[in-house]
Each structure stands twice: as C-alpha cells, then as structure tokens.
Amino acid sequence: MAMEDDLAAQLSEQIESWSCSSTDCFHISLLRPNGELAAGPFNPKFTYPIFGDEETIFGYRDLDISLTLREDDLYPHLSVKYGEKFKGVAEVQPTDIQDLMKDFLPEKAFQEAVQQSQSFTPPGEKLAEHNHSGKTCETWTCSLADPKAREILENMQIFAPLMIEGGSLLDLTQEYTAERWRLFLYYRVQDGTYSLVGYCTAYILLYLPNSFASGAFSLDDIINNPPADGVEAHYPHRSRLSQFIILPPYQGCGHGRNLYRDVFSNLTAPKAVKEMTVEDPNEAFDDLRDFCDLEYLRNNSPAFADLKINTSLSASNDDSPFPIDQIVDGDTRRTIRVQTKLEERQFDRLVEMQTLSRIPVANREKSRITRKEKCSNPNDRAFYLWRLFVKERLYRFNFDQLSQIEDQERIDRLESAVDSVIEGYEILLEKAESRGKPKGKGNKRVIVEDGSDEEVAKKVKR
Fold first, then answer.
1. pLDDT tens digit sequence for 193-238
2. What domain of life does the UniProt record list for this protein's source (predicted)?
3. 8 A C-beta contact, residue 207 and residue 274
4. Is 282 annotated as a binding residue?
5. Is 244 annotated as a binding-site member?
6. Which of 195, 200, 330, 460 is 20 to 30 Å from 245 at the Cα level?
C-alpha cells in the first residue's frame, strides 16, 4: 500500500511539473500598424471556456501563448512557444493548444503574422467624439451585416469568453441574424491611427403583434415584405445590449462610461424602440450601468429628480398594506419609464436610489423606525416607507423562492436583502454625489472611475 502511495505521489508530482495555469501563460497584446507594441501584454480573466474548468495546460515547460492583434482592425496572430514539451505516452499526451483554440479564432490567426495595415477607418457611422485626458476617443457603430464590421468582430470576439464570465461567441451564420446585430467600436485616435479601447454588441427583439393594442401588423408582414431599411425602423422592438468590454489596459479610466452613454443614446433614439435591456449583466457592469443611468435620469428628467417618498400616508385601520403607488407616485414613475425607455426592473432600482438619496444618512437606521409609519420625524417615516417600497419589488422578483418558505424566514430574508441593497446603493450614491463636486479650493472636480470588479454575495437577488 505504501508503494502504491509513493507511485501515486510521484506521478502527481510529475504531472504537476508539466502543468501550468492557462490564464497565467496566456498573453494578449495590441500592435501598432508598424508592428510596435500599442497596449499590453495582459492576461485574460478566464480561460476555462477553452482549456476546461481547471484552467490548466499539460505537457509544457516555460509555456508562452501569445495572441497579438492589430490595434485598428484586430487582425490576430497566435504564437505558442515553450522550453520543453512532454513526450506523449499512450493516451497521456500534451494539450493540443491550437486545436482547442481553433473554434475561438479565425483561421488566419494560425497562418500569418500580423502585417502592417493600410490606412484604416472604422466601418459605419461615427456617433461621438470625446476628449479623454487630452486624447481623442471616438465611438463608431455599424450593422454586422457589413462585411468589414463582421470581420473585425470575428477577429476579436475571443475577448468575450476571455473577459466575460460565461461569455460566448456570437452565431452569425444566418444573414438575417447578422442584420439584427449592431457593433459599437470605441477607439483612441492619435495621429490618424485608431487603437481599440473597447467594444459593445447589441441586437433587436421585435415585440409580438399583440404586445401593443395599436400595433397593427402581423409576423407575415415582416417575413413576406420586410422593409428595405430594416424592420427596426418600422416595428416596435426592444434593443438588447449583449457584450460590453473595455480592454484591461484601459479599464478604470472612465472609458466605460463614455461607451455606455453613446450606446444608450443610439439604441434608444429610434421612435420604434420601446425599451433597452441588458443580457445577463454581471455585477461589475451593473455598477457602471447604475451610475450612468442615474446620472442620465437626474440630468434629463426633472420629474425623476423630484421623486421622493410620500410621508403624508396614514396607517389604515384594517392593517392592510400601503399601496405602493402612493409611496412613490405610480403614474409619474410609469410616465418617466416610458419616456426614458429603461427596462422595468432597472428603472425601479433607480427610483429606489433616487428616493433613498433624499433621506438624510443619519435617518437611515432601523433603530429609528421601531414605530414604523407613526414615527414623528418625517425622515424616519420616509425611511420606513422606503424599506416597504423596496421589499415589495424584492418579493415580486424573488417570488418563486420566497413563497416556499415560512413567514418568519421570509421576513428575515427580505430584511437582510434590503440591508444589502442599502449598502450597495450608498456606495454608488457616494460616487454619484462626489462626481462633479468641487475639490478643495480650486475648480477641479472629483472624477469617479468605473466600478470595480468586486462581487457582493447575496442570498436574495436584488
């Protein structure tokens, strides 16, 4: 038995000596048209979609996987170098790195080194230009039915699984599918050259004909007689943001805010768009989205900026719950949401942030609201009603889970969830309030950078 243990230990040690982290040995760089380094090298955040859950590569020592992409059109080249390679024995063979990566890169990435590009202009339409720390940045957009836009995405869409947890490649094999997608490219421009900072993809979803009482159209109309300029110009639909990436060398500098604002403005501008949604956002993106959406509403909707908790509500004699539409005026909320085209849950959370911001920090303590709606201090009463307002949304959002547990456990979970919501909102509100405030004696303003990637554990979805 001891001999078997020794052999197992030796085998394990040998396997470990020939194994390495697929994330640590993977390096990505952007190259200028003349071949010089423009950005990087940097490591991906995730490699399990390519190399498995363990994110381990077997059979090499001193392994270096280098993915270089031209900074403008993202023309890729993959290079695999190593000091030693394990001589396979029977079924024990080194990881076939190129074979695993062929589904994530175009064929040309395995054949040619990145060559110097000719003059380059992004495909499509320039949406906006930004002066960012003395440098010019531009946002461009184009349909993925455009061959040039599609080629750029195919060159770089390995970034989705490498940078987004659970990210995947887009399936654009059908032409009608490509026409539904838009690509947003965010470049830093210097001396006539374009260097990619980040990108976003989005697509449209048509509402079913019965979704709107006044929607006098049928699916047959769309299938048999599609408009030459696209169905999105004529039929009610929602725009859905899919992938959103700022490359690691440029993160934490405010580029994400610029790109998100440009994307939001573009996607919500058409009259036929009824709503903009986001596909499976992670918490890091939620922070960015919350910050930008709150800023947008405060700056563009006086009615939203005026929202507050109605503290004049009186307790009913029959212990019936307070009508939610009376805590924060329901008609006003619905009108603002339709005008701004924000998704319902996201808008509800923004209303919660705004109304919480109207309650002084000193009054946001549960110890002050033991008398509930009968609190003599109007700010304490507002905080009690605000918590009821939030609990109602959380209960609806988590109904399937909460409806299956005992009353007291449900109450405890909701109380804990509200506490977690407050903690998250206060962090964001502190950033929002500090942004734009004068700093010190001069006129310089505090600049709040993009949210961190830190995730907050929670038992009830917020």
1. 999 999 999 998 887 655 444 555 566 666 666 666 666 666 788 9
2. Eukaryota
3. yes
4. yes
5. yes
6. 460
Integer Cα distance of 255 and 197 in angstroms: 8
Q: Indicate the pTM of the whole model.
A: 0.86
Check residue 88 and give left, alpha or beta (phi > 0: left; psi -120 to 50: alpha).
beta
Q: Are 355 and 390 in contact (CB under 8 A)?
A: no
According to DSSP, the β-strands at 237-246 and 273-278 are parallel
Question: Residue 163: pLDDT above 50?
Answer: yes
Tell me, what's the pLDDT at 461? 41
In whole angstroms, give the CA distance from residue 127 to residue 454.
31
Task: Specify whether the CB–CB gap between 323 and 314 falls below 8 A.
Answer: no
Instruction: Return d(Cα 347, Cα 291) in angstroms, integer.
Output: 12
Residue 441 pLDDT greater than 60, yes or no: no
Give the span between the Cα atoms of 142 and 331, in whole angstroms: 37
Looking at the chain, the whole-number percentage of residues with pLDDT higher than 70 is 82
Q: For residues 87-91, give the mean pLDDT.
A: 80
Query: Are the C-beta atoms of 142 and 134 separated by less than 8 Å?
Result: no
What does the CA dihedral 68, 74, 75, 81 come to, rounded to 10 degrees? 10
Residue-wise pLDDT for 274-320, tens only, equals 999 999 888 889 999 999 999 999 999 999 999 999 998 765 544 55
Give the residue from 8, 24, 20, 12 showing the smallest Cα distance to 94.
20
Instruction: pLDDT band for 177, please (50, 70, 90 cuts).
Output: confident
Q: Which residue has the tokens 């700010």?
A: 379
Q: Is 327 annotated for ligand binding? A: no
Choose among 115, 36, 27: nearest CA to 73: 115
Distances (CA, A) of 374 to 316, 324, 377, 383, 450: 11, 17, 9, 12, 41
For 137-170, give one letter per residue: b (16+ CB within 10 A) or e: bbbbbbbbbbeebbebbbbbbbbbbbbbeebeeb
Q: Does residue 245 have a known ligand-binding role?
A: yes
Catalytic residues: 279
What domains are defined for the chain? Answer: 15-110 (3.90.360.10), 125-280 (3.40.630.30), 304-435 (no CATH)
DSSP 202: E
Per-residue pLDDT tens digits for 358-367: 999 999 998 8
